[in-house]
Amino acid sequence: MGKKVDGTLLIIGGAEDKDGDCEILSRFIKMSRNTKGPLVVVTTATQEPQSVGEEYYHIFNKLGAASIEVLDLDTRTKANQKHTAELLEKAGAIFFTGGDQLRITATLGGTLANEALKEAYISGVVIAGTSAGASVMSSTMIVEGDSSEAPKLNTIKMAPGLGMVGEVVIDQHFAQRGRIGRLLSAVAHNPYILGIGIDEDTAILVHSDAKLEIIGSHTVTFIDGRSVNFTNVSEHTPGQALAMENVNLHVLPKGFGFDLSARTSYRIESKEGEKHEDN
After folding, report:
1. Cα–Cα distance, 250 to 266 (Å, whole number)
2. What tens digit of pLDDT does each residue of 159-210 get?
3. Of the listed 149, 235, 245, 272, which one is catalytic?
């Protein structure tokens, strides 16, 4: 069993508050202020990089970010340019916008930018992502799946992610889009992988000790399949209803934490919360 986390991650379920208290984004800015280098907004996932980049630039500027760079990284040629890698290497914080997670992996995979991203992460730079930028954080990500009906066999598609947190699969817009069925299906493919479903305006702040804190206005669902004693996922009948027995499930709001190594939840008391300081 390898190490699950190498740094600090803020993984957001999408549709985070941008106009009110901005609890999640404010937490990100607070963490980025304690580091040197600019906050780099990566717009690779979106097909509207200019408008999305400008939106987050203004939000982060309003919240007090000292220096912001918007990186329109939309081709592998750009991802292999030296100055792109240098920008990520000197970043004080990195934020991935929403869109299509496959655009991120297809553009960054095996490039200088991807190597620079890994180095920044290991060196302590906080990496954040919302929506598609959340799904891509895990080693395996869901790229397609039907949320409109009960889980069935062969109805989801998965692909390799950026691998910043191991042994999990992450889904976003979770309760709002009824995605529990497709996350159950993902866990059924390999019950050792922990399923994490993050609601909108909700996030998990993952620390390097593999313990995480839940923040935001809704909940995070954890599906632990290690105790599953039967699943029919290997049966070759497309469209057949999924069967899983003995699944362990947690639904947790703000004020709770989760240990990815022990796979146990806990309440975050004031003294315990002080154990984790923002990088």
Report:
1. 11
2. 999 999 999 999 999 999 999 999 999 999 999 999 999 999 999 999 999 9
3. 149
Active site residue 55: no
CA angle 58, 133, 217 (to 5 degrees): 75
Q: Is 149 known to be catalytic?
A: yes
Residue 167 known to be catalytic: no
Write the single-letter amino acid at 265. Answer: S
**Which residue among 131, 138, 147, 185 is the active-site one?**
131
Tokens at residue 165, please? 């947190």
CA 26 to chain centre: 17
Domains of the chain: 9-273 (3.40.50.880)
**Max intra-chain CA distance, the chain:** 55
254, with CB counted inside 10 A (0-12, 13-18, 19+), is middle
Is the pTM higher than 0.85?
yes
Amino acid at site 176: Q
Q: Which residues of 225-246 are buried (b: 16+ CB within 10 A; e: fewer)?
A: beebeebebeeeeeeeebebee
Angle at which helices 112-122 and 101-108 cross, to 10°: 100
